[in-house]
Amino acid sequence: MPSIAVYPGSFDPITLGHLDIIARATKVVDELHVVVVHNPGKTPRFSSAERVELIRASLAEHGIHSNAKVIVDTLDSGLLVNYCRMVGASVLVKGFRSNVDLDYELPMAQVNRDLAGVETIFIPADPQHGHVSSSLVKQVADLEGSVTKYVPQAVARALATSAVNRKK
Ligand code: PNS
Fold first, then answer.
1. Which end of the chain is more exposed for a tag (fewer CB within 10 A), N or C?
2. pLDDT in the model for residue 167
3. pTM of model > 0.90
4. How far apart are the CA of 147 and the centre of ligand 1, in A?
5. Separation of 16 CA from ligand 1 center, angstroms?
6. For the chain, what is the domain count?
7. To the nearest whole number, what is the mean pLDDT of the chain?
8. What is the CATH number for 140?
9. Which residues surround ligand 1 with Cβ inside 6 Å?
């Protein structure tokens, strides 16, 4: 039976840290659904369709060197575990940079297990991406700093355009 996993997140926008987690997750599963999920606690910079496009462009730019199938999708409402059930995934993948991330992620992992027996597998961030977050790159781009170390080129371009539009 193929192992199917879901990597959910806001991805607003995707960073090189997220891409690294995707690349590493595809080495241990047969199919990975990268899912842009609506987080009611956040006001997104990019629409979910734009975030999906940026993920697809980033995957094309960087390539995934494994035989796993990668599917990019959205979940605009409803429980993540229902999405997992729909695609036959028994596992969620999450990256973590520090104990701050783990404190945030642990209750969600426990709820997802309670709700549907879906387990969460945590992949530690590569130290080179340990300080990279979507919110920080948005802030740097808005203040006209370079984000090319932190995000794929397609994302850097989208951030630059969004920074210009916000100034108008
Ligand atoms: O990148 P984020 O914003 O930290 O991702 C959080 C996200 C979207 C994965 C989380 O909010 C989520 O799973 N939302 C879906 C709704 C859900 O299933 N909630 C109950 C379990 S946490």
1. C
2. 86
3. yes
4. 26
5. 20
6. 1
7. 97
8. 3.40.50.620
9. 8-10, 37, 39, 42, 79-80, 108, 111-112
pLDDT at 47 over 90: yes
Instruction: Say whether 18 is catalytic.
Output: yes
The answer to whether residue 1 scores a pLDDT higher than 90 is no
47 is annotated as an active-site residue: no
- What is the rounded distance in angstroms from the CA atom of residue 154 to the CA atom of residue 55? 9
- Residue to mutate (ligand 1; options 7, 34, 76, 80; most atoms within 8 A of CB): 80
The CB-side HSE value for 50 (13 A sphere, CA atoms) comes to 13
Q: Which domain holds residue 28?
A: 4-167
The answer to whether the bond into 13 is cis (omega within 30° of 0) is yes
| 41 has pLDDT over 90 | yes
Helices of type H across 90-152: 99-116, 134-142
| Residues 35 and 8 sit within 8 Å (Cβ to Cβ) | yes
pLDDT tens digits, 115-125: 999 999 999 99
Nearest residue to 124 (alpha-carbon basis) of 142, 98, 149? 98
CA 73–ligand 1 middle distance (angstroms): 14
Q: Ligand 1: which atom is nearest the Cα of residue 40? A: 11
